Amino acid sequence: MDRWAGKVAVVTGASSGIGAAIAKSLANAGMVVVGLARRVERVEALRDDLKDEATRKRLHAVKCDVSKEEDILKAFRWVEEKIGGVDVLVNNAGIGRETSLVAPGNTTMLREVIDTNVMGLVMCTREAFQSMKKRSVDGHIVHINSIAGHNVPNIPGLNIYSASKFAVTALTETMRREFSAEGTKIKVTSISPGAVDTEIIIDEMKKLGKFPMLEAQDIADAVLYAVGTPPRVQSILI
């Protein structure tokens, strides 16, 4: 991680769970971290868990709902103007809504999942890519995907969540090709954990009873590993 010391990482959905663990880990590793979240006060509270005052000063909290393009544009403009631009982006923000695909009147819930898990990821990547390309940065984009983006679990309450994560799997490869076609060396990685003990674990999964779950820090450690690989390593899936 030495080559990233002092460089800027943007983490979406940084207010809790996996996003909070990633934000803290990157800050402790020496990066300047911008945590994007709707609950911005919870990102600010993460500073108390950082190792020293110098590290705490490297964590910035910016209010952003990634389902809203205007919020994304405003957040990345703040990063550009205040701290120079993005070197690493971690697309972590994601939601699930407990409803079946065929339930009446559920359009809003289904659209919320797509707008956050798919469109939010695409728009944040677009803005980060433009920042990296303009500054000739060999940056890194990391998507927090899911095992549900490779195999559809038999959990009815997940409904469109799995489809949104399959989209992330396809988008990762599409972005890799586009980054190459643009003549950049920007890397893209998709990390697909199984169940993680966070707020997104919905009631349908809890009904299954006790089963092994990862901790948020396990995913943060995977991000550190991926970002810490040398430039010659183009890691696609973990």
From TrEMBL:
InterPro entries: NAD(P)-bd_dom_sf (IPR036291), Sc_DH/Rdtase_CS (IPR020904), SDR_fam (IPR002347). The keyword Oxidoreductase applies. GO terms for molecular function: oxidoreductase activity, acting on the CH-OH group of donors, NAD or NADP as acceptor. The keyword Mitochondrion does not apply. Keywords: Oxidoreductase. Pfam families: adh_short. Belongs to the short-chain dehydrogenases/reductases (SDR) family. PANTHER family: DEHYDROGENASE/REDUCTASE SDR FAMILY MEMBER 11 (PTHR43115), DEHYDROGENASE_REDUCTASE SDR FAMILY MEMBER 11 (PTHR43115:SF4). This is Oxidoreductase. It comes from Culex quinquefasciatus (Southern house mosquito). The lineage of its organism: Eukaryota, Metazoa, Ecdysozoa, Arthropoda, Hexapoda.
